[in-house]
Amino acid sequence: MTTTIRLQREPFDVAAETERLTLDRTDIGAVVTFTGLCRADENGKPIAALTLEHYPGMAEAEIGRHVEEAAGRWPLLGVTVIHRHGRIIPGEAIVLVATASSHREAAFAAASFLMDYLKTRAPFWKQVEAPSETAAGKEAEAKKIWVEAKASDDAAAGRWSAPAPGRQAAKLK
Amino acid sequence: MKLLYFAWVRERIGKAEEDLEPPVGVATVAELMAWLAERDDQYAHAFENAGVIRAAIDHRHVRPEAAIAGASEIAFFPPMTGG
User: Suppose A2 and one of A78, A136, A161, B30 were both cysteines; which one would form an S-S bond, judging by CB atoms 3.0 to 4.6 Å apart?
Assistant: First the structure.
């Protein structure tokens, strides 16, 4: 399996990353890409930007462990995970998960699994920056607020803890 | 051992990392948090609701009851909000 995990400040090119995943291969029948974007609102309030803090070293390691787990659950031929950090403005991409397999089911499931775990287990923290009412260019430190974790994200990740239907039964036989 | 703090835990404590050697009686992550909270008001503020704070030992998530013996790097942070 081809695995690419990158953390970076710079934007990424979804088309180029997808092409890299399938370059010179004819065994891949399905590529699913998920791109997470920065919205202009958080909890119904307008925001100027997001700033993502991360734990260098652990972030790569944790994503790598989840990619390995995904590869153990589904027959994957390639996985790319790119997560940005630093300041990101509305409309820009934050995260890319691309999964490749011979058939679509594994690619869809693995991409969903990886995103659910990125949300709740990868050491990243979002801070929202409210639109500035002060002089342009002035750093409004007091206006930055940490985003709170959502119970719905925990629930989404939790559904993968249950054994996949059929798999457990097969083991018991 | 090296201690790292992230997001609002870092802001409340006022530093991103430091080297500290907790006393022998401090054996678990939960005990380490309780010991840190005693250091001063900033640490007390950071760890006032220790139940919500997550920890990692040497880049792996751990539970509060995890032993800290042999750890070279322990990190404390709020629930994660990436993706």
Answer: A78
pLDDT at A143: 78
Q: Which of residues 107-166 of A touch B (CB under 8 A)?
A: 115, 118-127, 146-149, 153
Under 8 Å between Cβ of A35 and A111: no
d(CA A119, CA A114): 9
Between CA A91 and CA A50 the distance in angstroms is 11
Domains contained in chain A, CATH given = 2-132+140-172 (3.90.1170.40)
The residue type of A22 is T
Q: Is the pLDDT of residue A163 over 80?
A: no
Q: Which of residues 16-45 of B touch A (CB under 8 A)?
A: none
Give every CB contact of residue A119 below 8 A, 6+ residues apart in sequence: A153, A156, A157, B80, B81, B82, B83
Using a 10 angstrom Cβ sphere, with 0-12 exposed, 13-18 middle and 19 or more buried, the burial of residue A83 is buried
- pLDDT for B10-38, tens place per residue? 999 999 999 999 999 999 999 999 999 99
Closest approach of B35 to chain A, Cα-based (Å): 23
A36 touches chain B (CB under 8 A): yes
Average pLDDT over residues A131-155: 74
The ipTM (two decimal places) reads 0.95
Query: Cβ of A146 and B75 within 8 Å?
Result: no
Contact A38, A92 (CB under 8 A): yes
Q: Which of residues 90-109 of A touch B (CB under 8 A)?
A: 94-95
Does A146 contact B56 at a Cβ distance shorter than 8 Å?
Answer: no
